[in-house]
Amino acid sequence: MTAQLNPRGDVAVLVPAAGAGVRLGPGAPKALRLLAGEPLLVHAVRRIAAAPSVHTIVVAAPATEVEAVRAMLAPVAPVTVVSGGAERQESVAAALAAVPAGPEIVLVHDAARALTPPHLVESVAAAVRDGHDAVIPVLPVVDTIKEVDATERVLGTVDRSALRAVQTPQGFRRSVLVAAHRSAGDALTDDAGLIEKQGGAVMCVPGSELALKITRPFDMALAEHLLTTGA
């Protein structure tokens, strides 16, 4: 059954999904790789659509797959599909331009984080609603981190107490994200990085273990296992 988005919601979610995903090995574009029989993008959109505040979802698909992605997502939720760019930043900008008047909170979410729970979407949106210009979900870094030189010689141990692993969705006041993209110079892989580079404040909220990024075959196997346990 197709999910119904909230016509009174104040959140638009952008999903850049045009990347190749070379670390997953040869095959379809990353967002279209199958996880338990369904594309990663379908899993991601289904969970976004279940978040009560979401008014609009815009997906930036590979240019050659726009119609196929539109047909794929039609049974899942009402989604706008646009052609993505060669770089992630270009895809986000294209999706942002397609957001209709209304939502003043914009979230940017990786399709590769296909199991992200709806409550994390709501948590990030709530923090923006509370007055923050930019919000990212994070987890503490639990591994020991070493700084090394070009020869792989260890230079020292980094204090991990001040480090965080960043997830998506990342949330922004719409006007702030629009301005950041208009002023963007070098391409970045992280939208919050645009805000940081321009001197804006970025706040953190607790992330979710389920929002793992599916990048390697091992990640795909782990995500399939999590699905069997009800994730």
List the helices and strands and how they pair.
Elements: E1 11-16, E2 34-35, E3 38-39, H1 40-49, E4 54-61, H2 66-73, E5 80-83, H3 88-97, E6 105-108, H4 118-129, E7 134-140, E8 145-148, E9 154-158, E10 164-166, E11 170-173, H5 174-182, H6 191-197, E12 203-206, H7 217-228
Parallel strand pairs: 1-4, 1-6, 4-5, 7-12
Antiparallel strand pairs: 2-3, 6-11, 7-10, 7-11, 8-9
Explained architecture:
The protein has 231 residues and is of the alpha/beta class. 29% of the residues lie in helices and 23% in strands. It has helices spanning 40-49, 66-73, 88-97, 118-129, 174-182, 191-197, 217-228; strands at 11-16, 34-35, 38-39, 54-61, 80-83, 105-108, 134-140, 145-148, 154-158, 164-166, 170-173, 203-206. It is globular and about 55 Å long.
Low-confidence runs of at least 5 consecutive residues: none
As an assembly, this protein is single chain
Structural class: alpha/beta
In DSSP terms (H or I, runs of 4 or more residues), the helix count works out at 7
Q: For the terminal residues, how far apart are their CA atoms?
A: 19 Å
Let me know the average pLDDT. 92
Biggest β-sheet, characterized?
Answer: 8 strands, mixed
> Over the alpha carbons, how many angstroms does the gyration radius reach?
17 Å
Order of helices and strands: EEEHEHEHEHEEEEEHHEH
Global geometry: globular
* Beta-strand content estimate: 15-25%
DSSP summary, beta strand count? 12
Helical content stands at 25-40%
Which features would summarize this protein structure in a list?
alpha/beta; 8-stranded mixed β-sheet; globular; 231 residues; two-stranded antiparallel ribbon
